[in-house]
Specification:
CATH superfamily: Glycosyl hydrolase domain, family 43
Strand order of the largest sheet: 1-20-19-18
Order of helices and strands: EEEEEEEEEEEEEEEEEEEHE
Number of strands: 20
Number of domains: 1
Largest sheet: 4 strands, antiparallel
Length: about 300
């Protein structure tokens, strides 16, 4: 693979209370023709994430056609699993309904945070979303004892499949706790009740790697392709292939995209969202500082 970078298509210059910084974890959703609604997560001045969107024509991605002034998904109330943030991770279009899988954030006491996975549904074609439950649909348990996040969901006939981030431990480095997480998989009959086996899909490749996140899976005939973020010192984008969606072979050296020599994505690249439109493959991604410098677009060279 070789990706041609098109640069930043969206930066956070909104000057809105709910979106003071960042435009992280982009998701592209086709809303007709060449128009795409791009969802992202911004942070307020208290570092709480909420989800908003803008609209582009994929043929002219640097021109923002519409910017929604309000979040479509807000953080929850006191004591809820998402009281410190509601960060969109994946959209499923199923039976004319849009289902938004998102990451709920809680602040911690001995560790900085804890995540869980929630579900929201849109009744107006993706302009706003309503949380389906006050609690999470995938939380920590005996399989995932620390936290879960970053779901990617595909519907295959009568089963729903999820690839998600699973935190396996925290360790103290000096006075700072450090998290370790990789990618696992789960299945569901309805997209709500998930069966987890503990099977690890993408594991650490060395002792230096400690964070693998934001899986993005596309199925092509009998081959599954996954793009994801992987971090040792700083984030890079990785790539893996699988015949069954369970056993994966990492092929990071084939991903075809890396940091730039200078500029907005010269230090790190992460949170890829890969999608196809009219025979062309695209990638949305973030650059330096976990999405603080904007959302970029890359096109796969044929």
């Amino acid at each position: 693979m070789k990706w041609q970078k098109k640069g930043v298509i969206f930066e956070n210059q909104l000057n809105l209370d709910w979106a003071a910084t960042h435009t992280a974890v982009p998701i592209a959703d086709n809303i007709g023709g060449d128009l795409f609604r791009v969802y992202f997560s911004a942070r307020d001045n208290l570092n709480r994430s909420q989800t908003g969107f803008f609209v582009i024509d994929i043929n002219h991605p640097n021109k923002i056609l519409y910017q929604n002034p309000l979040p479509v998904l807000a953080f929850g109330g006191l004591g809820t699993f998402d009281e410190s943030g509601a960060m969109a991770s994946w959209i499923v279009n199923w039976n004319s309904v849009k289902y938004l899988y998102y990451i709920g954030w809680n602040l911690g006491r001995t560790v900085p945070f804890r995540n869980a996975i929630g579900l929201a549904r849109s009744n107006d074609e993706g302009k706003t979303f309503v949380k389906q439950f006050e609690g999470p649909i995938v939380d920590r348990n005996i399989i995932d004892p620390f936290f879960t996040a970053n779901p990617c969901v595909l519907v295959e006939r009568d089963r729903w499949r999820m690839w998600y981030l699973s935190c396996v431990k925290w360790e103290m480095f000096g006075n700072t706790p450090k998290h370790y997480y990789h990618i696992k998989c789960a299945e569901s009959p309805d997209g709500i009740h998930w069966q987890r086996t503990g099977i690890v899909c993408i594991d650490f490749k060395s002792q230096d790697e400690y964070a693998i996140s934001r899986p993005c899976v596309i199925r092509e005939n009998n081959l599954y392709r996954m793009w994801y973020s992987c971090r040792g010192i700083t984030y890079r984008i990785g790539y893996a292939e699988s015949k069954d969606g369970i056993s994966w072979e990492r092929k990071d050296n084939e991903v075809g995209i890396d940091v730039s020599e200078s500029g907005w994505d010269s230090e790190m690249i992460e949170y890829p969202f890969v999608f196809d439109h009219k025979g062309q493959r695209y990638m949305l991604y973030n650059g330096n500082d976990y999405g603080k410098t904007g959302i970029g677009l890359a096109i796969l060279e044929q």
